[in-house]
Description:
Elements: E1 11-12, E2 17-18, H1 25-48
Antiparallel strand pairs: 1-2
Amino acid sequence: MLVGSCLPALWDFKLQHPKHKHPQFRDLEILIEKKKSEAKKLLIALEDEKKIFH
Length: 54
């Protein structure tokens, strides 16, 4: 499992994702997309329940 930080030299701050030269680029991209998808599902569930959030 990937956990931790990324060296600034391996992170694209403008695009907010790892650079292609990062040794775990593909794994990180998959993990990031998975987490984004989980967050979107949670947001939809909260909206469906009409809960108040900020």
